[in-house]
Sequence to fold (260 residues):
Amino acid sequence: MGRLDDKVAIITGAGQGIGLAYAERFLAEGAKVVVAELNEERAASAMKRLAGQGDATFVKTDISSEESANACAAAVEAQHGTIDILINNAAIYYDIDNANNDFEYLKMVFNVNLHGAWLMARACAPVMVKNGGGRIINQSSGAAYTYNIPMDMGEFHEVSAFSYSQTKWGVIGLTKFLAGQLGPYNVTVNCIAPGVTMTEATKKIVPPEFIDMIPEFMSAMKKKLEPEDLTGTAVYFASDDARLVTGQVLCVDGGAFMPA
Ligand SMILES: NC(=O)c1ccc[n+]([C@@H]2O[C@H](COP(=O)([O-])OP(=O)(O)OC[C@H]3O[C@@H](n4cnc5c(N)ncnc54)[C@H](O)[C@@H]3O)[C@@H](O)[C@H]2O)c1
Fold:
C-alpha cells in the first residue's frame, strides 16, 4: 500500500529533473501521475523511464497559456474523473538567462514561473472543490531568499531583473493567498523551497566552483541535494498527514535558509 493510492496527481514540468523524481516517487506511492510538460522530447524520455512503474500519462501542457492550462485540467478530469494533487513544479530554470535585464524577458519568466502556477491552480481548483478537496504544492526556491548575490559585479550599471528570484518569491506569496482562499473548500496549498539540487539544469546554470561551495559554506548539513531528497516532502504535503497544514513553505536545503 502506498501513501497516495489512486490519487490523481498532475506534475508540471515532469519531463526531467525534480519533476521527474516527483513523478517516480508518486507512482511508487500508488498515485496516478500526469506529466504536464511542454517539451515533447523531455516528456518522451520521461515516459520511457516511467513505463512499468505505474499509471502515468503525458498531457502536453504550456502552463503559461490559459488555453493549455485549462485543456490540461479538462483532459485529466475526463480521463480520471478528478484531480487530487497539483504540483506546480515547471519553471524556466534550465533555460534561464540571469543576465537578461529586458522587460520583455522578465515578463516572459513571470508568465511561466509565477502566472503559470496561478493558471494551473485556477484550472484545477474547481475540479478539486467539486470532488471534496485537493492539494496544491508549489515549487519555490532558495533563490527567493538569496538577496545578496550581485548580478552585476563592479561598478553599478543598472538595476537587475532578478527574474528567477522575483518569480520564486512570488510563488511563496501565491501559496499563501491560494491557501487562504481554498482552505474552506478542503484544498491545502503549500510550497517547497529546494536548495541547489543536482539536476541537469543546475549543472548547466550554476558554475562548478559554486556547486561544491554552496553546500559547504551555505548549509548546516554540508551535503549536496539530489532530486530524491525533495520527494518525501511533496508526498507529505499530498498525504493525509498534512491535511490541516496549509500556506506553509518548507525549505528542503540541508539547512541553508531557516526562515521563521
Ligand atoms: N534544481 C535546483 O537546484 C532547484 C532549486 C530550487 C528550485 N528549483 C525549482 O524546481 C523546479 C524543477 O527544477 P529542475 O532543476 O528540475 O528544472 P528543469 O529546468 O530541469 O525542469 C523544468 C521543467 O519544466 C518544463 N517547462 C518549462 N516551461 C514550461 C511550460 N511553460 N509549461 C510546461 N512545462 C514547462 C521544462 O521543459 C522542464 O522539463 C523548477 O521550478 C525550479 O525552479 C530547482
